[in-house]
Amino acid sequence: MNLICKAYSSYDDFMNLKNQWQESESHYFENNFEYLSMLHKEKVFDGEPLIIQLSNSDGKNIFINGSIEDVNYSPRIAYFTLRLIKFKKRCFRVRPYAILGNINDYETAGDIETALNTFCRKNKIDYISFSLLSKESIIAKYILRLKNPLKKDLTPLIEDHFLLEIPESLEDYFKKKDAKSHYNLKRIMKQVDNTYKDNTSIKIFTAPEDVEVFCEHAEFIAQKSHLRPLNAGFRSTQNMIKKKKILANIGFFRSYILYLDGKPSAFINGILYKRNFLTEHIGFDIQYEKLSVGSYLLLKVIEDIASNKYADTIDYSFGLDSYKKRFSSLCNEDIRIRVFIPKISNVLFMINIATFTVTNNFIRIILKKIGMYDKIRKTVRKILRTS
């Protein structure tokens, strides 16, 4: 079956899709039409926004929400970038869970992959990167089964995606834990409260006028977090501030900061959408690490959401941070995967990615077996933080 492929990148183009848009099928805020339309209007996308509409002869549509990005890639070994090896590529990055429409069989999935491949060839795009797909989705299964070795991603990343079903109350949450976890969580609460007594406060940020203050204070914390030396985690930029103001204007923005002695100490940057609270970033000042202030704030967020019935679940977003498993009650499997456009330079790029991914995984496994992984990671992070 041939699919008709149309591409939309401008604000006016996108607004013409309003009556056909199928966001109701997505639980992810970046597929919300109102949010996307404001991003288009304010021109605050990362990369060049692109919506692809695929239509069949019956008039059924599939929408793919993403952006075209220029990628400068150099491989990494652990924390170190090998800058002598460089690739410049053009990528169509599909946003998380951003294939909207019914894909019920492998034939349809194959038609979609073929149409995307043709579009990318015509527009000199080197590969398609699916940021997150459910591993059980038809499209993910189809891509994993691709037989063409020139297209196939040799190292797809399959990862656990943790969520928490909101309890009736924080006390109810504690009761569902085993005795050891119950004790440790209670200890975290008491430790912070007893140490700072009346000098502990939490501010909730929801309004557009709150955004700049939140970003300023979250950036203050992020600069002192263990993630900043790794160039990861929260980073306040003008684009981010604009996006969060848009989220606040449409009622999706909800974030928290913990203050100890009046000083910003931990933050949770969240988005409230469709009865789901998504934690985009969680960070804390490393000097409070022994007090587990990040966990303390997360418990307070669970308490707030449970008390006020704002959401049914907390979605800890993608990433493998250990707290996500510890504070979860559900786990799904997601996949990040690429499809390459067959040509020699892309094959070299694909082999390079695969080689260094396998090398890093092998090093990680060996270090964990000999008990050195955590020690080396802490040492390197400490060096990076003080350099």
* Largest pleated sheet: 12 strands, mixed
Distance between the termini: 58 Å
Q: What overall geometry do the principal axes of the alpha carbons give?
A: globular
Q: What's the helix count?
A: 12
Number of domains: 2
Textual characterization of the structure:
With 387 residues, the chain is an alpha+beta fold. It has two domains: 203 residues, Aminopeptidase (3-Layer(aba) Sandwich), CATH 3.40.630; 145 residues, Gcn5-related N-acetyltransferase (GNAT) (Aminopeptidase), CATH 3.40.630. Helices cover 38% and strands 28% of the residues. It contains twelve helices and 14 strands. The strands form two sheets. A twelve-stranded mixed β-sheet has the order 1-2-3-6-7-14-8-13-12-11-10-9, with helices on both faces.
Topology overview:
Blueprint: E1 4-8, H1 11-15, H2 33-42, E2 48-55, E3 61-73, E4 76-77, E5 80-81, E6 87-100, H3 106-122, E7 127-134, H4 138-144, E8 157-165, H5 170-175, H6 179-196, E9 200-205, H7 211-222, H8 238-249, E10 253-260, E11 263-273, E12 276-284, H9 293-308, E13 313-315, H10 322-326, E14 330-340, H11 344-369, H12 373-386
Parallel strand pairs: 6-7, 12-13
Antiparallel strand pairs: 1-2, 2-3, 3-6, 4-5, 7-14, 8-13, 8-14, 9-10, 10-11, 11-12
Helix pairs in contact: 2-8, 3-4, 6-9
